Structure formats: C-alpha cells, structure tokens
Amino acid sequence: MKRFLLTACVALAAGTVCAQPVEPVDLDMVSRIRQEAFHHSQVMPLLGELTEDIGPRLTNSPAMGRANAWARGKFEGWGLANVHDQAFADFGRGWEFGEAGVEMLAPRQLPLYALPKAWTPGTNGPVEGEAIAVKIDKLADLDKYKGQLRGKVVFLDELREYKPGDEADFKRHDGTTLEDLQAFTVPRDRSSDPAKRAKEYLERQELTRARNQFMVDEGALATVSISSRDNGIVRTGAGGSRKAGEPVGVPEFAMIAEHYNQVMRALDDKETVRLRLHADSRFTTADDRDGYNTIAEIPGRGPLKDEVVMLGAHMDSWHVGTGANDNGAGVAVMMEAMRILKAVGAQPRRTIRVALWSGEEQGLIGSSDYVERHFAAWPVPADPEMAKLPAFFRAGQGELQRKAGYDKLSAYFNLDNGSGKIRGVYAQENLAAMPIFEAWIKPFADVGATTVTSRNTGSTDHIPFDRVGLPGFQFVQDGLDYFSNVHHTNLDTYDHAQAEDLKQAAAIVASVVYHAAMRDAKLPRKPLAKD
C-alpha cells in the first residue's frame, strides 16, 4: 500500500524538527476509486431510475415504498450485507396526487398554474366558485369571516410585488467565495427565550388546525396560497395534516406568484373572480403508518469490524417535481459510493454503513429516530409545553442517554445541497478533524475539492448526529441553481442535475468514507454542547 504523509517541519537553532505525520492517504486506493467513478460511473442511471421511473417520493407515499424496494434491490445486487428497511413509528398517513388544474372563468378566461399541497384532500372532480381574499393571522380573525366562505375559493396571502433578481440563478464557488468560507463568525449571545419560541410554534400549530376545521365548517371549496418563488415557479410543501384524527381542511393549492397577483388585483378592483379547479389528491392510508429508512453495509474486517463509518442522504422528497436535486442527487451519490467501494474490492477495517433516510422534509424524522435508537438521545423535557416541540426545536436537557452504539461510531457523512460538485467539508467546529479532512481531499484538488472550513451548516441529516456529540459532517457543494430555482419546486427535475459534478462527488465520498474506515483511530469528537 503506497501512502503519502503530510508532515510539518520547523527549523530550530539546533536543527530541523519534524512533527508527527498528520494523516496517511492510500493513493493506490484513491486511484482505483477515481478510475471507477470517472470512467465507469452509474450515478446518472441511478438518478434517472429513482426520479424519472419512480418519481417524487413524499414520505409514506406509495412511491416512497417503491423507492425503498428499488434501493434494497440495488444494494443486494451489488453484494452489500445487512440490507433492510428500518421503521420509525407512526409517521402519519400516506398521500399522493395525480393531476390538478385551476382556471379563471370570469372576468375573463385564463389558465392559472397551481399545484396541491401535500396531505390535503382532493376536490372529487371539478368544482366552481368565486374567489375571496382573507387575512387570518390569529384565532380571533376567524370570526370575521363566519358566514362568508360557503362555496368560495379562499385566497390566504396578500399580493406580493415582483422584484427582478439581481444575482445569477446558477452559481459556482470561485476563489473568493471559497476563501470567504474560511472565516468563522463568532455566534452572538442567544436572545430568544426557549419558552417564547415554544409558545409561538404551538400557537402557529393551533391556528393551522383551527383554520383547517373552520374552512370545512364554513363550506369553503378550497384555499390558495402564493408560491414563495417568482418567475412561474411553484414552491410548496405540506398543508392539511398527515396525522389521522386531525382536521385536514379543504383542498389547498399553491399558485405561481404572477397568476396569484392577477386574482388579487381583480379582487382589489371589486371584480367578481370565478374559478374552476380540480385536484386528484388522496390519502393512500386511513391510519398512521411507520416510515422507513433503507440501510445496507460493507462489513468491516479484523479487530475494528464492530466500529462503524456511516454515510447517508434523504430519499424522501416533496411532490411537485421529481426530487432529483433534493435529494435524489445525494441518494445517487451515496449509492454510487457504495457501488464503487464494492467494485474496487475495498476491504475496510470498520463497517461502512449507508442510510437512505425518509421524513427529512418533515423535520429530520428518519435520521433523528435512527440516532435515538442506536446512539444517543436527550431526555424528553419535563416542561410539557417544551415536550410538544419537535426535537430540532428543543435544547438538550438533563444527561445525554448514550446507547450501546455510541462509542462504536467513527463518523457520519451527509450530502444534501443539490447536484453541485463537492468543494470541501464543513467541519462543524471540530478543529481536530480539519487536518484529517485536508489530507483526505488533497488528491481531489485537481477536480475542485480544496476547502475545509470550521463552519457549521445545518438543516439536514447530519444534525441529529452532531446534536448528541457524534462527528456528523456535510460536504461543501457548488450551489448551481439549487436555492434559486429547484429547492422544493416543480423545477426539481433530472434536467437540473449535473452529471460530471455527481461523478466527482461520488469519488470523493467513496474515498473519504474508505479512509475513515481504515484509520487506526475513530475521528476525533468535539466537546458536547447541549444547545
């Protein structure tokens, strides 16, 4: 095995003193990984099968079940071990939609582009009614509209002024932006009161439930919200309720801003706006069901085989595109990394375990459940109001409850920022890990990976690991048009994925997890922070 060692030397009066080698890198294995990843890639066929054959994968939808089965089949075909789905309890009901449409009938005829929100009922065929604008910011506002909504299509948001973009939609890191990532911003003192945050969150939830029931009781036909994107893009998420027994309300739509504003201007001018709409939306289960993560492994060999290096990405998506960039791209890369390691005959010392999560879009539910079951969990808060909050809103309270696997995990690596190439690693303030990462990505400098930053990044599945003091990391990626166009929108499709970027990412992930599985010691851990 050929390896190179990064060594720091200091000239002293008595001679030259060299520090201990920073980190060994197996360049023979890196070369084999690069050859397989760059010249025999399967990453785009994987992405195409997941997103264009299976389609969008809302958690607990029939398509998500097909995606779990598809991933298991791939893993088994590549010879991975311990391939299985692992449940997380009582996520909620399944839901899907086939087609939908909205038309303006008066004061003129015009097709309006809108799509249904997840977990909202369908219309049971076309329905027609007049549009009405409301402003409901608190429970008391509901009383203002009693007796006014029967047979109406209720527009919930105010008109939003169009603002032309002043930045490019498609972005890659350059020398300046990568250099900027090296600057760490010292956090400010927390000014928010956890009890206040809990109260505000629970009030929003209460208002949503009350509004859903109010719309049903008052006989509204449907509600319409404005997309948070301009330029004809539909961006939406959930409405109604995924939990059995809670009010789901009436059919809900998200409409492109340019069409929504036309309706609102007509209503402001006191015109009668009549609409026809339909949504083939439906719950696919009547009761709450478990969600499922898909797991597979390359077993370790020798004394360290019971220790684990994990990699993962979330396989669930929203329903309005095909979930190609959020996060089919991450899934395809992580699956391809496992395929590459099998293809090059890797025999890791530690077990390499891949997890394809579900429920990420609803609050990191699948990965959080997995961490709590296998590694560690914070106690449920004694304050009943705080206990009602999702785990990601809570501060750590009491003593961390460590599980048997806590000391066996070396690290977890995540990919979930679109299909842009990997430019480095966010170290999550784990300074001891930074020189290790610098050594591991150095052989990929020629394909753009050069940056290790001490910064934190959040909002995806490495956070449950980080929250309990385990090394959990997300890669730095080129942004492309992820946040400008495709994130949670109808444009999240295969055409927006970049093939060369995904090949590069798969090679880097395969190499990083291999080296983590081969090093003598587990990755260093930073001090545990409860907040």
Describe the structure.
This protein is of the alpha/beta class and 531 residues long. It folds into 2 domains: 298 residues, Aminopeptidase (3-Layer(aba) Sandwich); 189 residues, Glucose Oxidase, domain 1. Helices cover 29% and strands 23% of the residues. It has 13 helices and 22 strands. The strands form 5 sheets. Strands 5-14-16-15-19-22-20-21 form an 8-stranded mixed sheet. A hairpin with a 2-residue loop joins β2 and β3. α1 packs antiparallel against α13 and α7 crosses α13. The longest helix has 25 residues. The chain starts with a strand and ends in a 13-residue tail after the last helix. The N terminus is likely disordered.
Write a compact overview of the structure shown:
It contains 13 helices and 22 strands. It has 531 residues and is α/β, with parallel strands linked by helices.
